[in-house]
Design brief:
- Helices cover 77% and strands 0% of the residues.
- By secondary structure, it is mainly α.
- The longest helix is centred in the middle third of the chain and has 23 residues.
- The protein starts with a helix and ends in a 5-residue tail after the last helix.
């Protein structure tokens, strides 16, 4: 298993979570 693949999966999961978070808050820039 490559570490890069895990990093990509984590980044995608984080982006999805952050998008939902920003969608609910609506004021977060980062």
């Amino acid at each position: 298993m490559k570490a890069g693949g895990r990093v990509q999966a984590l980044i995608r999961q984080w982006n999805a979570t952050r998008m939902v978070f920003v969608g609910e808050k609506g004021e977060l820039g980062t």
